[in-house]
Structure formats: C-alpha cells, structure tokens
Write a structure and sequence with these properties.
Elements: H1 5-22, H2 24-28, E1 32-35, E2 41-44, E3 50-53, E4 78-80, H3 86-89, H4 92-99, E5 103-104, H5 107-115, E6 132-133, E7 142-147, E8 153-157, E9 164-168, E10 173-178, E11 184-187, H6 197-204, E12 208-212, H7 221-232, E13 236-240, H8 252-259, E14 274-276
Parallel strand pairs: 3-4, 4-5, 11-12, 12-13
Antiparallel strand pairs: 1-2, 1-14, 2-3, 6-7, 7-10, 8-9, 10-11
Helix pairs in contact: 6-7, 7-8
Length: 277
C-alpha cells in the first residue's frame, strides 16, 4: 500500500463509523419496508425518517407478537392513514400521541378525529387527494394523496353512551411516498381496480407498489395483477391486505400466477419481515 493512501483510508473508516451512528438506513442510502400484516407498514427512508402507514397492530391476528406493543416500532416521525376503517386507523391516534407527531389522512377523517377529540387539531392536519406535503422540509420526503376506490367510515365509541357511532371518514386515498433519493412507493390503501391507475402509473412512476390482493373488499389477485401489468408497471410489487379474515381469500401464489411473465416483480414477504431497496 502506498503510504499516502493510509490517511485517506483512516478518514474513510472514521466517516463510516460516524454514519453508522446516524443509523443504518442513512448509512446505506436504502429504503427499508417492514410489513406488519394487513396494510400496516413501517417505512424507514434513506435519510432515517420513520413513517408508519395504516397501523393496525395490537389486535391484528397477523402482526407478530413482537410488534403488538407499539413501543416496539421504535422512533416514529409520521403516521399516514389511508381511510377510516378500523383495520387501518386502529392504532394510529395512539401512535401520534405517543410520539407527538402528526397523523395525516383524508381531510374528512382528520376533521372527525379532531372534532370528536380523538386527536388534538395540531396532530390531525387536513390533507386531500392531489395534495402534496413535505413534512420534513423542502429536501425531504414528498407525499401525495391519490385516488382509491373504496369507502371510509370511522366508528367511534361514544364515552357518554358507550354505544358505537359511525362518523364521516373522508374519501379513501392512496399515497405516493417519494424518498429523499427519488425512490417512490405507492401504498394503495384499500382499493378496487380503476382506470385512473394507468394515469398514476404514467405520472408518478412508482418503483414499488404495496398492493391489496385479498378480494371481497379490495382487488382480487387477478385484478391486482392486471393493475401491475397494464397500469402501474412498477419494478416491484409487494402484496398486502390478504389472509387476515376469512373473506380476504386471495393469496400471493394466485397473484404470482396471474402476473405470469411479470411474476418476478412480486416480493413475497411475511408479516414481520422487511425488504431493503
């Protein structure tokens, strides 16, 4: 080794140690996606921000026991909710309060959460389809709300009557989440197949789609495969929202079969497992 190279190597090693202290995601420049069952995911961005989407964890039969305690998620910087159904919003308000961070969801849902006192106004900002937020500053993550073909009702137990009440949940959405390095994730929320997915694919060009395949309330494996092959054309497709309750019968194997020649795009991940990009 040339003597002049030794100081440079020492500097490189020191820089590596410093980056390690700043976190693995920031060090590697990678995006980490941890699936926790149903539509719940924890996304760690290349810059080290942690975003939790649709957190139904504590009573979710598919969430691993190690993540049923909300503290197990570690640091959380932002919560996103696609619509007002329990299996998407269940643990979101508690996470927002625990970390004193905003919960972003459809404007109507957030209005309901603040009006009912589920969350204070400052933790329940309003946001709608076509809107884009940059919650970590101008050079940070960019999040855009998109159309989803579903419904959205928020069921709330009135403490005065102990009876369940159904309130406005806003219009359901999906989210295009663009990382600091440009990598784009499309969390589709709950949705049926619709033609404007073609526009979403062409305009936003997602690298990874988190796509529901269970059927009954959402797309079937065949519908999801059609969306991937003909509309969205992502690099990767990670199936979600299946197998949690009996009517969500779609399986990754059926999805892969329907994808045919595009089956290599599918990432089969079990709840509690993560993938890096």
């Amino acid at each position: 080794m040339h003597p002049l190279l030794r100081p440079l190597i020492k500097v490189a090693v020191a820089a590596s140690v410093l980056l390690g202290a700043l976190g693995a995601a920031a060090q590697s420049g990678k995006t980490e996606v941890l699936w926790l069952g149903q539509a719940a995911v924890r996304i760690t961005t290349p810059g080290g921000k942690v975003i939790v989407v649709d957190p139904w964890l504590r009573t979710n039969p598919k969430t691993p026991a190690s993540f049923k305690n909300l503290e197990a998620l570690g640091k959380v910087d932002l919560v996103l909710v696609t619509h007002g159904h329990f299996d998407h919003v269940a643990d979101a308000p508690d996470l927002a309060r625990m970390h004193k961070i905003p919960l972003y969801g459809p404007a109507g849902l957030n209005q309901t959460l603040s009006t009912l006192g589920v969350l204070p106004v400052e933790l329940s900002p309003r946001f709608g389809k076509g809107g884009t937020i940059m919650p970590f500053g101008p050079n940070g993550v960019k999040i855009t709300a998109t159309r989803a073909e579903h419904s959205s009702e928020f069921v709330w137990k009135n403490p005065a009557t102990t009876k369940d009440e159904v309130h406005v949940g806003g219009e359901p959405v999906g989210f295009i989440i663009e990382m600091e390095n440009g990598f784009k994730i499309y969390h589709m929320g709950d949705t049926g197949l619709f033609g404007d997915m073609k526009f979403i694919g062409e305009y936003y060009q997602p690298d990874l789609v988190l796509i529901p395949i269970g059927g009954h309330f959402v797309m079937s494996p065949a519908d999801a495969a059609y969306a991937v092959k003909n509309y969205l054309k992502p690099r990767y497709a990670l199936p979600i929202h299946y197998g949690t309750i009996p009517v969500l019968r779609g399986t990754p194997e059926e999805f892969a079969a329907a994808l045919g020649g595009d089956a290599g795009k599918m990432l089969k991940v079990s709840p509690g497992e993560k993938v890096d990009f």
